[in-house]
Specification:
- This protein is α+β, with helices and mostly antiparallel strands and 492 residues long.
- It has 2 domains: 272 residues, set domain protein methyltransferase, domain 1 (Alpha-Beta Complex), CATH 3.90.1410; 167 residues, Rubisco LSMT, substrate-binding domain (set domain protein methyltransferase, domain 2, Alpha-Beta Complex), CATH 3.90.1420.
- Helices cover 37% and strands 11% of the residues.
- It has 17 helices and 9 strands.
- The strands form 3 sheets. Strands 1-2-7-4 form a 4-stranded mixed sheet, with no helix packed on it.
- A hairpin with a 2-residue loop joins strand 1 and strand 2.
Length: 492
Amino acid sequence: MVNPFTLSPSSTFLSPTKTLKRFSALTHSKRQTRSLSVTVTSLHKPGSDIDSSHLPPNVQTFWQWLRDEGVVSAKAPARPALVQEGLGLVAQRDLARNEVVLEVPKRLWINPDAVAASDIGSVCSDLKPWVSVALFLIREKLKSDSPWRYYLDVLPEYTNSTIYWSEEELAELQGTQLLSTTLSVKEYVQNEFLKVEEEIISPHKQIFPSPITLDDFFWAFGILRSRAFSRLRGQNLVLIPLADLINHSPSITTEDHAWEIKGAAGLFSWDTLFSLRTPVSVKAGEQVMIQYDINKSNADLALDYGFIESKADRNAFTLTLEISESDPFFGDKLDIAESNGLGETAYFDIVFDRPLPPTMLQYLRLVALGSTDAFLLESIFRNSVWGHLELPVSRANEELICQVVRDACKSALSAYHTTIEEDEKLKGENLDPRLEIAVGIREGEKKVLHQIDETFKARESELDELEYYQERRLKDLGLCGELGDIIFWEPK
């Protein structure tokens, strides 16, 4: 039978059918943790007074701008400081959980509304939101008199996101899904740039007088990926000056920190405000931090922000399964899959030390249905077949899915150029931050693949002990004994 399964090196984050939807929205609600444009000459120690003289001049100017705009004062709960990550927000006094850290008025937000109100708004109205905001960012950065000049000056020129890695650095990701995803992202961004260059930039030299390069476009893309908020009411993409300096803490387990409220935006004005609150209590001199996204994998964190976590459940691998068009029952299987919220291709994120996704086995059994099991595809079973697939259908069906998944795992594991043991040995060394990310990613993926393989290996060993559809059906009809023997009724 034709192999109906695919174990794709591309994650759900960038599967061919999902790429444009995911990136056109750019709905990421977190910020960048590593401000690489800042040289850390001294770290702020918890409990010590915040000395702004240690801050780079551009950060001091940015803070003064916020004071002039009435956004902050000398008594602000937190202010920028040099921290281990680069720049962060440090509490100036003890803060209770859920206490307001800062409030930024909408007039200072950078979002599609700001683009629409600008002098490039008319030519950007038909662009994807993130593309229009990217062009706006680049153009404002090139203008000496931009209203956001002081904010733009504190933004990093690059991060440790894998979209900025060199070919040599990317080679350390050989075999990983992150490598495939990164290359696809870079291709996507390049294609968007070429399109916008031809349709918007070149025909409108009067409003884009300075050359805009692909590197500029990647810079803006990276800023939006790492710093944009998206969970505010009616806001799918918004940069919030000052708020985006806040760093990530893996120990914080709630994402409830951002609010949109109505309030004073100055001495004599009212506006919509972005309100940032600390999700945990913070001592004076300690860094105020939030949880960027509790559901992101390490690959997502590396791509978006340029860091990974040591938590085991941040390691994930995406199984891509599909119903083969050459399958003689393709139409029936597709109809059943679509009736249950899936499709011709389905993506299942397998997380280390967690159970398999609930519908994964059902989809696997559906794709593998054939031969004597094909009767379940008949129309009379159409409303009940998905329920039947929650349990093993037949020994042949269950054996096939075990075999195919295990073979796919072995194939994927063979693509890496190191072993788990070699990666673990490297982790004990003082690594460059990007190599540290690469080692952690490939080790994590391999651990998940081994876990998948062990899961289906154990299932193979139980095939003779499982109860299959025909046995369950006979029991329901009272024609099968407790030991699985078929009961024959003889006429008296």
